Amino acid sequence: MTALLTVLLAPLAGAVALALLRAPQAAGWLNIATSAVSFGASAVLAWQIAGTDEIIGFGLRVDAFNVYLVVLTTFVGLTTAVFSRPYMLHVCAQGRVGPGRLRLYHAMYQVFLFTMLLALTTDNLGVLWVAVEGATLATVLLVSLYRTPEAIEAAWKYFILCGVGIALALFGTVLVYYTAQHVLADPTAGLTWSALLTVADRLHPDVMALAFVFLLVGYGTKVGLVPMHQWLPDAHSEGPTPVSAVLSGLLLNVALYAVVRLKMLVDGSLAATDNPHLAGQLLMGFGLVSFLVAVLFLHRQRDIKRLFSYSSIEHMGLMTFAFGVGGPLATFGALLHMLVHSLTKSAIFITVGHATHLAGTQSIDHIRGLIRTQPAIGWSLLIGVAAIAGFPPFGIFTSEFLLLTATMQAQPWFAGVLLTGLAIAFAGLFRHLHPMVYGPAPEGQHRVPANMLPVVIHLGLVLWLGLAIPDFLARWLDQAATLITGVPLL
Amino acid sequence: MLAQVPILQQWLLLLAAFVLFSSFVLLAQARLVSAIHAFAWQGGLVAAVTLVVALAEQSSHLYFSALLTLVLKALLIPWMLHRLTRRLRIERETESLRRPALAIMAAVALVIFSYWLVLPMVEQDLTFTRNLVAISLAVVLIGLLMMVLRQQAVAQVLGFMSIENGLFLAAVSATGGMPLIVELGVAFDVLVAMVLFGIFFFQIRDSIDSLDVDRLNRLTETPEEGP
Amino acid sequence: MADLVTPWPWALVIAQGFLCAALAPWLVGWVRLIKARLQNRRGPSVWQAYRDLYKLFAKEARVAHTASPLFRLAPYLVFAATWLAAAIVPLVVVNLPTAAIADMIVLVGLLALARVFLALAGMDVGTAFGGQGASREMLIAALAEPALLVAIFTLAMTAHSTNLASVIDYQLAADIIVRPSFLFALGGLLLLAIAETGRIPVDNPSTHLELTMVHEAMILEYSGRHLALMEWAAQIKLLLYGALIANLFVPWGIATDLSVTGLTLGLVAIVVKLALLGAALAIAETVLAKMRLFRVPDYLNLALLLALLGLLIHVILEVGT
């Protein structure tokens, strides 16, 4: 319990301290320290969970499913903080942001981590909503941090789209609460997820189906599902790079987590009706459309951060599809994919941040010869993209292999579509990547100070996961998959 | 106590009907300041609905949420918007919809759609609750329509806030109010969102010299190469 | 239904019809008087409208040499249709024999008939103003009639009948309850009544300004008894709408049986209701400004919206509760 509270309260305390701290140098270190405390506590929490299955208290609930996301969130939060300290100082030195806005950045970074950890650990659907909305509010100012017209436009779009989407999710939450009132002995517990799960089979199926449509559209907006994805490439491309890294690596995961939690309730409620897999079918539909649209859009991008944000949509679509397919294998694959995608994508965004500093632009056409000017960046980008495109021996290959196997079992036709999509995505990524990494370096392109440690750690982990999933992680994910599907895999 | 409930329910229906009407007024209102007033009225009506439900259920926490809604939605947010329009010097701005009759008819269609959508709830419960859920869903959808049709940033925010009103109405009328902690959280989020919107108005005006968000169009799928 | 064939109710029907025609100039005079008082004028007496009609009837009717027979016929048709429509609306007593044969749709149809002939007569002579007035009248009618029907349907759906007498009976029988749908229908009907009877802010009955006039433009070529009939028909129409709104939404006081006390009470009630409505109209006309013709569609759309909302709210909120 103490560990859980530390995980949550460290970012909150850090946010307050960072809001007050006026020294930019020290703020970067404090940001790292706060994230490190939170990460350490989450590791302890994970160790505790391994012994006790679940921890419940203060309206919070941690089980196998969310604890691994908590660890992932704090970990990526930590490594991104490590990356962002010199990066933001560099941006500050360029004069793109002043010290005041840097203070805002650091404070909001921690608030963002807090809201996401709260969303992951809370047992209350209402608090989940409040936390996800809070994450929007915290990041919207980060997206517009540079105050360029493009950044403001991106932030406005992000704010409005996610605000509206999340409002629809609240309507779905109200519907769930409404139908729970008729079932639960204690009606005030009508938003408590664990209480709802025990009575899921008695929740009114029609109302739950309607609620799930609203919830899927609502939280799906934050997942970046097509056609509610419009905000995502803009917000990623115009925000500061560390923000892109945490948006892609963490926020999308948290939103997907919310959808999956709610799917568990709906599945329980619809089990006895004519159409027990309605939620899964919806997820498959949205996931597949998002996957295919994003794959095609990959080819048309000219901005490097937009390119990788479409890649994020592609992978979120893939995971949504996998959760929709259901079954322990697909779910296991999707959970693993959440993990490796987060690690890889945040590593890529960190590398891209350095690459844009090196080239002085985000335009793909003007980033050239990375590997000649600064081999570390060039190689990192190359390896990162190879990993994200699903090359063996990286972890994404493993998870995609599992996903495809499961799809082949359940829906053979879709496996072909997925394979074709992955091939197109691969072509789209490498066609842009090749000139950027190789190609002749433009005159006067200099090396930039780069901190490649987070990238090395992330990609190393992804490689490790590709070669051999450690036993404890496999058990962990299996527990989570069992929780979601009710059937153990291992 | 029971004898009073039908009368209270009648008042509830009347107030809900007026909330829906205020949504239409908000949608069609061209003058910004009048739209803000319409929004304030809507907030007041939602607070009144909450109060009536609180009276019917004798629930102390609903009295509190009625007060919260009144202060937040009917007084504080309209006041903030008023102040913002004054400081942005757009009090006199008007923006008429391109095809007002069509917009109104679309909104009417949305009302019918939301009624159809909540029909499944009829089996479970009093039709009474379902009716109010239909009205609140209609308010939500009309707010959405307003955000789609309006180009003016302040008007879009009004649409956003009226969506929140619809959600609150749904929560109060269908379930007798969410747990207090959730309600406080939502209210806090709305307030923070309002403050952020205020900041954004100034940022947008500084960047495009107007609050017409249709002119925020620099980001497209394949941006043209600069010279 | 046996008592329906006895002569006594039929006599009442005819009496009520004449009462309609007789009360109509009074209502117009009353509105003018209140308006004058609100504008700090002494104003003409209530009976001035009767004197005007009498004067016109006494004068010779001149007809333009380009006019067709339709032009001569139109005043009689317009007057007859409007009067018949007014006779259908229960004024003093409900459940008269006419109630069984005439319902709301017929009422709307009769008014439309009158309007068609009015517009045809306006165009007949071929002057610019007549055609202009007719086209404006038709613009208003095209927007107002759907709204009128929707508002009436709201009432009809509640009472499960399009019969005016049944609706009033239903209203009288029900407890006093708050019906949001009726409020919206009432709002819509009030706006429509103003548009249909050519009052401010849609039309101004007391000016002949070519830019704005609608009704006056159509009857510009009439004189003598023709003009008197046209004016009288317009006055009856005002009374008709007043009685319709008063008795449909606030039916209390109307006689339900044929006893003398009931009838007397009914007469007093309707006069009081009409007086109040007339006063409200006068106040509204004093406060509001005439709107531009281009704004009239917006105004009528509002009326349609109110009527539609009434209907929707009836379906959503009231059915089943």
UniProtKB/TrEMBL annotation, chain A:
Keyword line: Cell membrane, Membrane, Oxidoreductase, Transmembrane, Transmembrane helix
Domain spans labelled NADH:quinone oxidoreductase/Mrp antiporter transmembrane: 123-419
Membrane-protein topology: Multi-pass membrane protein
TM ranges: 64-83, 104-121, 127-146, 158-178, 207-228, 240-259, 279-298, 318-340, 376-398, 410-430, 451-469
Main localization category: membrane
Pfam families: Proton_antipo_M
Family matches, as InterPro entries: ComplexI-like_HydComp, NADH_UbQ_OxRdtase, ND/Mrp_TM
Subcellular localization: Cell membrane; Membrane
NCBIfam families from the UniProt entry: PRK06458.1-3, PRK06458.1-5
Protein name: Hydrogenase 4 subunit F
Species name: Thioalkalicoccus limnaeus
From TrEMBL, chain C:
Enzyme Commission number, as recorded: 1.6.5.9
Membrane topology annotation: Multi-pass membrane protein
Residues spanning the membrane: 12-33, 73-93, 99-118, 138-156, 176-195, 238-255, 267-287, 299-317
Pfam families the record matches: NADHdh
Subcellular location: Membrane
Main location: membrane
Keyword set, alphabetical order: Membrane, Oxidoreductase, Transmembrane, Transmembrane helix
InterPro entries the UniProt entry points to: ComplexI_Subunit1, NADH_UbQ_OxRdtase_su1/FPO
Listed GO MF terms: NADH dehydrogenase (quinone) (non-electrogenic) activity
PANTHER family found in the cross-reference section: FORMATE HYDROGENLYASE SUBUNIT 4, FORMATE HYDROGENLYASE SUBUNIT 4-RELATED
Protein's name in the database: NADH-quinone oxidoreductase subunit H
The organism of origin for this protein: Thioalkalicoccus limnaeus
